[in-house]
Design brief:
six-stranded parallel beta sheet, Rossmann fold, globular, 3 domains, alpha/beta
């Protein structure tokens, strides 16, 4: 079986040569950038908003020991059942038990990256339950039996024609390239699922400690239907989603909409604090909240990279990353792709197995600049590289750097090596890009810079 790094390299080679795919993604993200910048300009000061958001998340994450119990206590006071899941397996078992206890047959589910993280759909389907994604993009990729392509835009890699062919094949609809007609086809298929579902599963964008409420932001209203119609509602969220105060949403909701989708505000913003209360006309009879750790506390213990837990899953870093824009979302082979995924996946799934993601970066810093909560992403990628080398150093790299250090610390030897390099440069051109080339990893797709005929030091000596 191929390792994840082999799969990443192979798929990268294929996708980067697919000009149709690249053009599709570049066009979509180009339109996003225009709308994002328009909405950023509406803020009195975007940089001040980022700083305020970063400080609020710092307070939340560095005082989780206070905010999480407050959040749970207030949820439980309204009749919500709160479950703590230390691992992905524990979270799956908790949700499976709730579903079995309800003798459920069908499940409707709104968008939840945490559910993708723990492979919840696979576990539920393996037990014989029908699970239907209610978010349009998620529903499309579910029909294609694919993982989401992007944190915010799950089906960004598909054209109207691709979706029309899919619906014709899977839903028996007539071919059309009209976006509204495609939406209505999916809507007709999903409406009955809401009515017949026994359990509704949601994620969460934020968890408010002050009031014990979960905030869900969306553009389709599907999460509201997922929460309102089934008798049982389950919300699965990472422990890092906590915000201290309700008023913090006044900043985070427009920031998430702006950075994530180039909107002033998403169409539907809902708060859930418990099951249906006396006198309420709708809502679930039972409400369960599953708080997922899954190695987040290990990242919390890392003072250097703790701010990666500030992430609000807006996808802004993916949208500006030159690597993501060329290799695409599925190539990463993990739930969280792009720069934020490259930072946190080695923490969540193992440093040595996933360290290649931190090396798949130009370190241009665009991700850090785009992040609305000021996560130091490109430096964290460097820190992952350093940590992986320190934990399991490469023998070849150790020898190479020892030789380089020995030469660099001896000016006379360095001068001889420079002259030899100029001498052998024409010879290198004969083997460039072949397996005989010692710099093959670089030269198979790029040129080595040509050495100047004379160094600056030599020129200075000659010209005084």
């Amino acid at each position: 079986m191929k390792s994840v790094i082999q799969q990443f390299k192979e798929q990268s080679r294929v996708i980067t040569k697919d000009l149709r795919h690249r053009n599709l993604i570049q066009t979509a993200l180009g339109k996003y950038e225009i709308k994002r910048d328009e909405k950023k300009a509406a803020f009195q000061s975007w940089s001040s908003a980022r700083q305020a958001a970063a400080e609020i998340k710092w307070e939340a994450i560095n005082h989780l020991d206070k905010h999480l119990p407050d959040f749970v206590r207030r949820l439980e006071a309204r009749g919500t059942v709160v479950h703590w899941a230390t691992t992905a397996e524990t979270a799956r078992d908790i949700i499976l038990k709730i579903v079995r206890d309800q003798k459920a047959r069908s499940i409707i589910k709104s968008k939840a990256m945490t559910a993708e993280e723990i492979h919840l759909n696979d576990a539920l389907e393996h037990e014989g339950f029908e699970v239907v994604e209610s978010d349009l993009g998620e529903y499309i990729v579910q029909l294609r039996k694919e993982a989401p392509y992007h944190i915010v835009f799950p089906a960004m890699h598909l054209t109207r024609g691709d979706i029309s062919e899919l619906f014709t094949r899977e839903l028996g609809s007539a071919p059309t390239d009209n976006p509204e007609e495609l939406t209505m086809i999916a809507r007709r298929a999903l409406r009955q699922k809401y009515v017949t579902a026994d359990v509704g599963i949601t994620g969460a964008n934020f968890a408010i400690a002050e009031t014990g409420m979960i905030s869900i932001t969306e553009n389709e209203g599907n999460a509201r239907l997922t929460a309102a119609l089934p008798k049982v509602m389950i919300s699965l969220l990472g422990i890092e989603k906590v915000l201290p105060r309700m008023e913090d949403l006044a900043l985070f909701l427009p920031m998430l909409a702006t950075a994530g989708a180039g909107q002033a505000l998403t169409c539907y913003n809902s708060l859930y604090g418990g099951p249906r209360q006396p006198g309420e006309s709708d809502g679930p009879e039972q409400y369960h909240v599953v708080l997922l750790d899954n190695r987040r506390t290990e990242l919390l213990a890392d003072a250097e990279q703790r701010d990666a837990l500030h992430c609000i899953r807006c996808g802004a870093c993916l949208n500006v990353c030159p690597i993501y824009r060329n290799v695409g979302g599925h190539t990463y082979g993990t739930t969280y792709s792009g720069p934020i995924g490259s930072v946190i996946t080695p923490h969540l799934r193992g440093l040595q197995e996933w360290k290649h993601l931190s090396f798949a970066s130009s370190l241009c810093g665009a991700c850090t600049e785009a992040c609305p909560v000021k996560i130091d992403l490109h430096h964290h990628l460097l820190q992952n590289r350093r940590n992986s080398a320190h934990e399991k150093p490469s023998v070849i790299e150790k020898i190479t750097f020892k030789i380089a250090g020995f030469v660099m610390n001896r000016p006379g030897l360095y001068a001889v090596v420079k002259k030899l390099a100029r001498l052998f440069q024409p010879l290198h051109k004969l083997v460039k890009g072949t397996r005989l080339d010692p710099a093959y990893a670089w030269t198979q797709s790029r040129d080595l810079p040509t050495l100047p005929a004379e160094s600056f030091k030599d020129w200075w000596k000659k010209n005084k």
